[in-house]
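Case study 2.
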Amino acid sequence: MPSQLDDRLAALAAMDSSPTLAGLEDSVWTQVQARKAAAAAGGTGVRVVVTALALAIGLAFGAFHQQQPSRQAQLAELGVLSDDGLLAPSVRLGGGA
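Prediction:
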């Protein structure tokens, strides 16, 4: 018992249509380039905003969290460079000056 779907599929198979492919590749590449340009243009604003926000946060953090320079680090470096600096454990173990 043939159904309506079988009739439509038979009619579709009997059709003689050969699509033209001339210019298909050019139109596809045109659409690809248009989408690429649109994506790049939309992302530029976001990148600028994120960069400016990161800079502002970094400057604010640096302004509010100022630390005094550590005097201990300077004294430790002078200890290695002093007259008895060759007796420092770091120098004796081969990792020092």
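The CA atoms of residues 12 and 18 lie 13 Å apart.
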